[in-house]
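QA checklist item 7 of 12: single-chain prediction sanity check.
[x] sequence parsed
[x] length recorded as 272
[x] structure emitted
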Amino acid sequence: MTLPGFIRFCAEQGLQGIDLLDVDHYPWLWSAKEELAKVPEWTCREGVAIAVYAAGNNFAKSDETAWRNEVEAVRRVITRARDCGAPVVRIFGGYHCEANGEPEMTTTRGLARVVEGIAQCLPLAESCQVVLALENHGRLPGHSHESRAIVDHFASPWLKVTYDPANCHGNSMDEDEDPLRAYETLRDSIAHVHLKDVWPAKLDLKRRREPCVAGKGMTPLRQVIAQLAADRYPGFCSLEYEAARIVPEREGVTQSFAYLRESIAIAQRTWL
């Protein structure tokens, strides 16, 4: 599927927006970097917004040059988001030593590097009027109190979080966390939401969890959606579908949307 085809597919699904993955961090999405300049035209033609522009960074680097390269990569992402009209940039913190990160990257050392990286990027985000939305991917940060501590440290309206309830019991976590408890901790700082589902690993027993079709696993998506509706969450929710080994994308995405739409109808009480 080409990028214009993906945008068209999203419009045909009745979606209001798309996640756009960075041209450097996710090159498989793009046939050429020059496509980035065409995205606003393509989304306008299909009637969808660019909800978020996503980086794939890792601030948990020991080597100063490598760390600086990660900072500069995120800064490029911020300007690209501004240029294509995306209001939010999804960023990662970094990878823990037990989540495929460097051996030195314990929780304390890794989180310190993440904070240093964000500090280098946040002023540019403010000047570009783009919100950075930190996701707990790679365990740095992992639990909601760690994300909360980083957000509170900067106390800036330009740093918020990407809330992904499935990450609360994902493979990179050392301790599972109740996704609804995490929501309570982060609710006033959520700029973007990922909706995906996972269940205990069946195909790869070296992993604890594997992705599945939304509504089939252990993530309390219906309860999450009900809470978002009750709080009148104003941002976007993105389906993050990673279960192609179980159900092919087109089929699994359609099934997942059906479940999410029913959950929204229940939350909004449109069935009454």
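[x] summary fact logged: DSSP finds eight helices and eleven strands in the chain.
[ ] second reviewer sign-off
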